[in-house]
Amino acid sequence: MRRALTEARLAYDAGEVPVGxxxxxxxxxxxxxxxxxxxxxxxxxxxxxxxxMRAASAxxxxxxxxxxxxxxxxxxxxxxxxxxxxxxxxxxxxxAIDRKAGAVGSLWDVxxxxxxxxxxxxxxxxxxxxxxxxxxxxxxxxRVG
Length: 145
What we know:
The chain is built from 5 helices and 5 strands; from the N terminus they run αββααβαββα. By secondary structure, it is α/β, with parallel strands linked by helices. The protein has a 5-stranded mixed β-sheet. The longest helix is centred in the last third of the chain and has 17 residues, at 128-144. The active site is at 49 (proton donor).
């Protein structure tokens, strides 16, 4: 999670909502990383999870991320949760809960939906306070500025 927080700080410094993500292979090597970049790229899919999964897929040369773990500082939204299922990730680890848009238990639970063909293991609220504090700080400064 600390590596994902490093990515989140890069987003913060760039004026993006500070969410960061990394993808680990089965040997716990980082094979993809990313942070929110929607503003810079003008891309609505520029969420940290998507950026990190694209990088991991490029590293592996396949869209299937079986055996891999996604670590992200904020609970994924519906788009990212759907991508996690589609990528066949084995594990999802996330930090802060997203009560406004979370799709891994808060508002929806896409990744555990039994109607879907894949359900990753989920570990929630890892370093949640630290992940949430960075988001709070970002939005406090945004409102003041």
